């Protein structure tokens, strides 16, 4: 799955009046920090993103904003000289015009959690001579040698544009069909026919984008002569409606949203010539395997599709014959609980002799080399190595570069050659770090992103052996302080925890505790990272001890640890938070266990509300943002993976439902709910359902609607006000 770490998940504290005894300097910093934090995109604006190495390894292309803007521009770093030049700006292409996005493109970006504007993506041809840059629903091709740009003549509303492997064509989706343009003629041609709002061609359906990490719905063949595409029929999918409550005159918008236990989109895979013509449909048992999870059409390999059963306990990797649509099974994976997806795999060898495959079959993440017929050849990255993501694969000597580490709070860059053991790439980093990056096709150049507990993200350019060649320049504002972060394992279960103390911390003084939580089975919270701990430090400076815990159910440990939440979101997840905080308090007696609060967003919002309703004896206050309330109201692919089908596992839904605890006798902790009224992932009615149930049960609480906002909170002013309200809630109820 995609690995997303955004501060939207980390709903933390913000400025208020400085606590008594805090130094004047600390208070002065506090008065400006939150505004800086919001206006600088959490101090991430101005840092390079989207780096790519040109095939000749002479340049590194990347995107970057200014310090206080979210508009990205395109740059090129020259490896030989170490100089960087501006290649292209949105302003130059729009010539003073305003960037406009279609509702479909906005929805696509919401699924990808992209709030930036300007150049949010770009494509580089395989020979490195051309760039494809989408902007404001239009496309531009840039000649790298001359720097000249030319607009591609398309119709309006272009979505998901991509260059063909030979760089001579571009394909995209608009008006629910796949189109292409031959760049020499610069004339648009329709590839697929008959696409409608109900039956789209070339677009990934909602759950594919939101839960599978599959953001595209079409794929070029390696020879650029054919396109495979997904047809997604949402005719039987329930439609949910969003109304802009601030503007009732605008009416309502309806979206197909498959709630747990309800009908999904019907998806099939077609293959058609790029010149148009008859579609050949891939043949598999769609009744048994209704999910089209992954599609790959790599050089050297066949068109390959990964299909899953609805409960995601079984999947088949299929090789598809484009001429007939017939399929053959390369391998079958099963798991009694569920199977986690990894969209980078299969990764085919260019000689066609086999492919790399990701599995958790043997108790933890593992990468295998399999023969072309699917037969296992050997394990490349064994369980226990802490594999997370591939960084690059050198076909010539079958060297896999990957990011990961046995310690889930860190990540390092490793390489493993065919038949060998992984070795860490000597990047020169010392101490705990988080490393990720990209590797050139031949392995001669590495673009490494690195950060640590005392350093914000920076991007360096290395030789393949780790020798530093330069650094991609950044213009970001630096935070006004370095977090006082401590990471340790505690308790009999060896929970990973982080603790942030106030900068004017006085040993021996008891302080209230705020637990910052996500808690779900797709991301961890404890990282050796300054960037993700800035708000923890700010909140701590208001007179709190801020704690994070990765309990059972979270990833990056063993498969058994991750799958401990099967059929129950509400028991081990919450028990482990309490057990870990209690264990931490034995080592840090300043944690006042009589004054514990909790906050989170999305699954973390669910956990926060659960905590003060189920265990108000321990959790005295909570801020719950964008929370799921009744899991029957969340989408199929995520919910059924963990809880099963509602009709088959009613008890799993009952024990995990927040309404179950709202109806129980007794008081609850001080609860503040926050939710965007335009959220199309976790709909606003979740918060309303819980608020109504608590009101009817006579249980006081507060609800703050975030008018017009989605699951992301991208507005800097709202971000500032939101966090101010969070810290105010804890100051009122924990102090």
Walk me through what this model shows.
By secondary structure, the protein is α+β, with helices and mostly antiparallel strands. Among the domains are: 292 residues, Rossmann fold; 103 residues, Neuraminidase (6 Propeller). Helix content is 17%, strand content 34%. The strands form ten sheets. It has an eight-stranded mixed β-sheet, with helices on both faces. Strands 1, 2, 3, 4 and 5 form a five-stranded mixed β-sheet that branches. Strands 14, 15, 16, 19 and 20 form a five-stranded antiparallel β-sheet that branches. α1 crosses α13. The longest helix is centred in the C-terminal third of the chain and has 19 residues. The radius of gyration is 25 Å and the shape is globular. The protein starts with 23 loop residues before the first helix and ends with a helix. The N terminus is likely disordered.
For the report, how would you describe the main beta sheet? 8 strands, mixed
Q: Could you name the CATH class of the domain at 7-41 and 478-734?
A: Alpha Beta
Strand content: 25-35%
| CATH-scheme architecture of the domain at 7-41 and 478-734 | 3-Layer(aba) Sandwich
N/C terminus separation: 40 Å
Low-confidence stretches: 1-28
Shape: globular
Summarize the structure.
The protein is of the alpha+beta class and 735 residues long.
List keywords for this structure.
735 residues; alpha+beta; Rossmann fold; Neuraminidase; eight-stranded mixed β-sheet; five-stranded mixed β-sheet; 34% strand; globular; disordered N terminus
